[in-house]
Amino acid sequence: MKNISAILIVSLFFLGCKKTQVAMPDSSQWALFRDGAAAPLPYATRQAMEGVYDIAGNDNFGSLAALKWSYVVNGNNDTTYHISGFFGKDIAYFICEGKQLNGQILLSGYWRKMVSTETGIIRFTIDPANGATVLLNPSPVLPTAIILDGLFGNGQDEPKNSITLSHNRPLHNGAAPFNILAHRGGGRNSDLLPVSENSVEMILKTAELGSTGIEIDVRFTKDGIPILYHDNDINLRLTQKSGLVGPIENYTYAQLNAFVRLINGERIPTLRQALSAALYKTPLTFIWLDTKYIGSLERVQALQFEFMELATGLGRPLQIVIGLPAEAQVNMFLELPDYNITPSLCELSLADVERTNSMIWAPRFTEGTQNENVAAIQAQGKKAFVWTLDVPEFIEQFIRDGQFDGILSNFPSCVAYNYYVQQ
Amino acid sequence: MLVSFNISTAQQKVKNERLPRRKPSFVLHAGGGMSYYTAGISQTSVAIPGTLNKWSPAATLRLMWYPRYRLRLGIESGIANFYRYNVRDPDGEGKVTLQAVPVLVVWNMQVRPRWNIYAGFGSYFLTSWLDYRGKVRSTDVVLGSNVAVSYTQPINRRVSAAAEIKLMNAFETKDAALTLQLHFVWKVFQWD
Amino acid sequence: MIRITFYTILLLILSPAAYSQDSNFVAKHRAIFFPYPMYKEKWRTSLGFSFLTTPEDITEEIRLRIPCGEFTVLRKISEKVQAQGRVSFQFLQNHITAGVHYVKPINKKFYWSAGNDIGYWFGLLKIVEGFNSKASGWLTYPSVSFGWMTRKDLLITLKAQASFNLYYQSENGENKFVSTQKYYNGEAFTLSIEQPFYQRKHLLLAFSAISNKFYWQTWSLFYKTNRRVFYPQITVGFIL
Predict the structure, then answer these.
(1) N or C: which end of chain A has fewer CB within 10 A?
(2) Of A169, A188, A210, which marks where a domain is finished?
(3) Cα-Cα-Cα-Cα dihedral of C20, C24, C27, C29, to 10°?
(4) Mean of the per-residue pLDDT values of chain B
(5) How many whole angstroms separate alpha carbon C37 and alpha carbon C32?
(6) Domain range B34-190, CATH class
(7) Whether A165 and A200 share a structural domain
């Protein structure tokens, strides 16, 4: 018995936390969707499909869904379009690709609940009589009844549970554009997305999750290269085991590039790579550069101006701002040449916003909706964003009762749902 | 008031008891051996796969307080390399060594005559030695623990020799190594 | 729960006639975790602290939270029924439990107990600029303990405790959210050692493996999910 107790003590002492993972289902096995005759959906069809849909046949995802398309550019003349469905229950969403075949519209992809590790395959069909004929017309005439007949399953199981989405109304579109901003490029590693936080791969994925913009964390390597990395140290939360420990600033970019991989296998991106991906490959319109270091901001400012000019040259709306989270960063910012014409976002007081001539005030959500302060800042022609809002009930309250121009969240799909389903 | 009255009553009863005959003492353990890295490290998780060495010399220094009772308390340190690996790519050769120095509070209990178990909790001071397009020495302090089983052979009243098998576990970085060591055990001071 | 119920029934079946009381126990084995009847004593108390290591997913770079003070009181109701109160305090977030436990000897070496505690936690973050948050909640904790008196100076206890969330409330500025959803929150397994240590002072050392969807010490850091999170915890207590 003594030995047993010793083993028990030791076992308890060494009980480790096995890392939870989400096994993303392989949704590419639908024979109909893989049919060689299946063709891409035209732009007009995609646009006409967007909207708020009623859900019937299953209560797994709530009663409403907001459907919206996004894209990612893979290379020259190669763009993938995704339709995302944002649900009101359990921060659930689906992401599908779409095709047409024999007059039908087919959607194939996966669903996920962010509050858990639940995921599975999901498929939809729009029959000709359920709206496909109208949608596939070169100039679809709406409103028309659009019904998506769907099946979904758990994990890699063949989808068998039915779900039906019926078009109810267009997506809410406010008088001023609303910014749905994704934290760390799209979400934290703890949210178990298939790509790592602050990676190029995450930036390419984030629009699928409902984001119109991103917040990314900027640090410098030992040789002065701005990179995307959140924590002070190299650790297992962010990277795979490499034998390197300690502050990331201790290593050169070449050393990090050779020895360190992010948690899902990606390389640590430079800020240039990240901005380039956002500009050329995504529909994102806003980038918030969160400053995670103490030092000169000149290199960041130079990249900011370079990429905003490139965006202007492309006729592409893209705003890049330097985030000022604390007094130290404010002081660094004030030392910049032309700081007063450098787009910035200040997380501190209204007086600091004025001092830095920031175009955006971004308070924490922990002080509430602060409608009076938000109205005051908007009266100056500036904007107000709130961060980092993750509780669905508070997201709903801030959208319903607040006046903010944007919300930063780890769950952009939840913000998207609550914003788009507004009547 | 009621609580303090009852506590004092209980303590009075305790004071009336005779203490165990065992004399308290401080005992120093010092020794060394070999360690083998037992945690997973996939070659694919290292950016550039190369040769990996999981064996290393290991040393331990531990000071234990033996009270009159069964459970003992002490502090422990030591040194071991968790692992080393070499890499080669078009830009040159490189090598990485991850070294660990534990600083742990350790509990110890004798479970059978001459057989002891140890469990420690505290920090591991990790150092990375990187030599690839420049040398870097970088450190971090992480949470960790250890557990050990030892067999002690008395040599005289104050000195013993011990063989010990120990698992070092820097659980924050998921690094672990099994060590086999020989210890010199010296009863430094005894009182009462 | 099925597992806990099974062990409770098993222990009830195995229990022989009440073990004759040991009047010297108060002096020898004043224990908090160990399920021993209170024959002559009326109170047992302990003061100590616990360390919770939090998973990197939740607290990111900060793996060791500040220690939590722990004060526990046992009050005799009858020989085999004890009231138990515990205050866990970190000042900005605190947790109070109170409950009743039935304690029964199996034989000279083995003891068991079963009971339930009701817990209330509250947290306040207003002292730092940018924060105007508070939250609170109610939980209930049914538990069973199994004690083994290995020898006169060493008591080993294994405690299994479930937790159910009953109420959750969170406020940020003028925004408030209340959830009355009741759900199974998780379970904790604790192995404790209690013995005299220095002179006649008794020491309590406990290792807990906690697996919860929500843990009160992390209320300000993350949103409750349906995912379990594992928290190892070490408790050190001095029995007064």
Answers:
(1) C
(2) A169
(3) -30
(4) 86
(5) 11
(6) mainly beta
(7) no
Residues A139 and A216 in one domain: no
Considering the domain boundaries, does residue A2 fall inside one? no
Query: How many structural domains compose chain A?
Result: 2
**Cα gap C101→C81, rounded to integer Å:** 6
Residues A145 and A275 in one domain: no
Structure tokens at A143: 């409103």
Amino acid, single-letter form, for residue C97: T
ipTM: 0.86
Interface probe, candidates B7, B16, B72, chain C, greatest C C-beta count within 10 A: B7
Q: Domain range for residue C108?
A: 2-17+33-239
Q: Which residues of A309-318 are buried (b: 16+ CB within 10 A; e: fewer)?
A: eebeeeeeeb
Does C107 reside within a domain? yes
pLDDT digits (tens, 9 = 90+) for A277-329: 999 999 999 999 999 888 899 999 999 999 999 999 999 999 999 999 999 99
The answer to whether position C112 is within a domain reads: yes
Structural domain count, chain C: 1
Rounded distance between C-alpha atoms, residue C126 and residue C130, angstroms: 8
To the nearest whole angstrom, how far is the Cα of B3 from the nearest Cα of chain C? Answer: 7
Q: pLDDT tens for residues C57-108?
A: 777 776 556 789 999 999 999 999 999 999 999 988 999 999 999 999 999 8
Based on the domain organization, do A138 and A197 belong to the same domain?
A: no
Flag whether C168 is in a domain. Answer: yes
C-alpha to C-alpha distances, A201 to A91, A140, A185, A186, A311, nearest whole angstrom:
22, 34, 9, 10, 20
Does residue A266 share a domain with residue A395? yes
All structural domains of chain B with their residue ranges: 34-190
- Closest CB to B128: pick one of A10, A235, A244: A244
Find the length of chain C: 240
Residues A31-44: b if buried by 16+ CB within 10 A, e if exposed: eebeeeebeebeee
Whole-angstrom distance, CA of residue C63 vs CA of residue A235: 12
**pLDDT confidence tier of residue B18, bands split at 50, 70 and 90:** low
Task: State how far Cα A197 lies from the chain centre.
Answer: 10
| DSSP secondary structure letters along C186-234 | EEEEEEEEEEE-STT-EEEEEEEEEEES--GGGTTT----SS-EEEEEE
B175 close to B39: Cβ distance less than 8 angstroms: yes
Beta-carbon-side half-sphere exposure of residue B10 (alpha carbons within 13 Å): 27
CA A149 to each of CA A100, A261, A335: distance values in angstroms, whole numbers, following the listed order: 15, 41, 59
Question: Is A232 in the same domain as A307?
Answer: yes
Same domain, residue pair A145 and A185: no
Tell me the C-alpha to C-alpha distance, in Å, between residue A76 and each of A310, B153, C44, C78. 18, 75, 76, 81
Judged on CB neighbours under 10 Å (0-12, 13-18, 19+), A151 is: middle
Chain C interface residues (partner A, CB cutoff 8 A): 55-58, 60-61, 125, 130-133, 148, 150, 156, 158, 170, 172-175, 177, 179, 189, 191, 193, 207-209, 222-223, 225-230, 232
Backbone dihedral region of A394: left (phi > 0), alpha (psi from -120 to 50 degrees) or beta?
alpha
- Judging contacts by C-beta atoms under 8 Å, the chain C residues touching residue B73 are 197
| Domain encompassing residue A53 | 31-169
Q: What is the mean pLDDT of residues C226-235?
A: 89
CA angle (A133, A137, A138) in 5-degree steps: 165
What is the rounded average pLDDT of the residues A168-178? 92
E strand or H helix that includes residue B177: strand B175-190
Taking Cα atoms as reference points, which of A58, A107, A127 lies closest to residue A87?
A58
pLDDT at C199: 65
**CATH code at C84?**
2.40.128
Give yes or no: residues A203 and A125 share one domain.
Answer: no
CB-based contact C176:A394 (threshold 8 Å): no
Q: Does A13 map to a domain? A: no
